[in-house]
Design brief:
Blueprint lengths: L3 E2 L6 E2 L3 E3 L9 H13 L4 E3 L8 H13 L6 E6 L10 H4 L12 H15 L4 E6 L8 H13 L3 E7 L3 H14 L4 E5 L13 H8 L2 E4 L23 H5 L1 H5 L3 H16 L4 H10 L6 E4 L4 H7 L9 H10 L22
Parallel strand pairs: 3-4, 3-10, 4-5, 5-6, 6-7, 7-8, 8-9, 9-10
Antiparallel strand pairs: 1-2
Helix pairs in contact: 2-4, 4-5, 10-13
């Protein structure tokens, strides 16, 4: 397997990384540990989680696994501080009703507290990559960078980054770090799949120029590219749209389902499953460090493992471009960002 450097850091990650948003919601802990064991055995060395996943239980599940396996130094853990604000002009109570003032977002007060809580849940002394989950325009980026710098200097965090930020905000943070000596963002974690290619317009070129790692989420477009959905208004009972509703359901569109059916046919013609082609397409796109896969059972993971050593052919790349042109979108996977308002095809 060819490991890949994360931006300009000296850290190498596997070309597929393990996303765990489904851990404890709905996947039971025993199955989660089986997935972790198999991923580790296959050489997948980065595990992505967040303090909002299953209200912190996702981190606890991973923490118990880390303690049991006893090889913490061989695993990279990436976690995130909770979402905080998602839309400019809205208060924290409007966005996250169950939280009071000062209980979310990337302020120094909350970052220090959230990091300490994640360390306890993960049962580790340090976090390899600590990310700001969403942009919060009500907190000045210098306060956030200052707090992250202190966490790195204290040895609690190794590298920092962000998730689903606009390209201009990532670059602002990078330039402030260069000018004022703050810790530099090493990675951005955006949504990216064949149904929503909008990061190709600004974020990917910026990341390539400034040597920023891109670890992307939802390569299968929440299962639309894997054929999970037949209609935009009817969801299988075990799907995320049915289980979680809200912005998850908003991502299932008629046009997306139409593309998904054509995509499935293309995958079968190439001798791949739709899930394999969906992940392979993201893995081999220019500028991408690695996609995050989110298997809900070991069988799903086994379907992904061969992709670690696959290469996307030029013919398949061109065929995918005909389904959804570069830089465009037929489904909105930035609908939790609060900043991207672009039109869909």
């Amino acid at each position: 397997m060819e490991y890949r450097f994360v931006g300009r850091t000296g850290v190498q990650v596997s070309p597929l990384c393990l996303g765990t948003d489904c851990f404890a919601d709905p996947v039971p802990e025993e199955i989660c540990h089986q997935i972790l064991d198999r991923a580790f055995d296959a050489g997948i060395n980065l595990i992505d989680t967040g303090d909002s996943y299953a209200e912190g239980e996702g981190e606890r599940v991973i923490g118990r696994w880390l303690k049991k396996m006893g090889r913490r130094h061989e695993v990279l853990i990436m976690t995130k501080c909770n979402h905080g604000h998602r839309e400019p002009g809205k208060t924290l109570d409007e966005v996250v009703p169950d939280l009071g003032p000062n209980q979310g977002g990337p302020s120094r007060l909350n970052l220090v507290r959230a990091c300490e809580n994640s360390l306890k849940r993960l049962q580790t002394d340090y976090i390899d990559f600590y990310l700001i989950h969403r942009q919060d325009v009500t907190v000045h980026i210098e306060e956030t960078l200052g707090a992250l710098t202190d966490l790195v200097r204290q040895g609690k965090v190794r590298y920092v980054g962000c998730s689903t930020f606009p390209a201009w905000a990532v670059l602002e943070a990078i330039l402030l770090s260069e000018f004022k000596g703050y810790v530099r963002f090493a990675v951005e974690e955006p949504p990216y799949n064949l149904l929503d290619r909008r990061i190709e317009n600004e974020l990917i070129p910026m990341a390539q120029k400034y040597n920023l790692g891109l670890l992307t989420w939802s390569p299968l477009a929440m299962g639309v590219l894997a054929g999970v959905y037949e209609r935009e208004d009817e969801y299988p009972p075990d799907s995320r749209a049915a289980l979680r509703g809200g912005f998850y359901a908003e991502r299932v569109t008629r046009k997306g389902i139409e593309v998904g059916k054509k995509f499935a046919k293309l995958a079968r013609q190439a001798g791949l499953t739709p899930a394999q082609l969906g992940v392979l397409w993201v893995k081999d796109q220019p500028g991408i460090t690695a996609p995050l896969i989110g298997p809900e059972c070991v069988e799903h993971l086994e379907d992904y493992i061969p992709i670690l050593d696959m290469k996307l052919s030029d013919d398949l790349r061109e065929a995918c471009d005909k389904l959804v042109p570069p830089g465009s979108a037929v489904a909105n996977f930035h609908n939790t960002s609060g900043w991207l308002k672009g039109q869909l095809l």
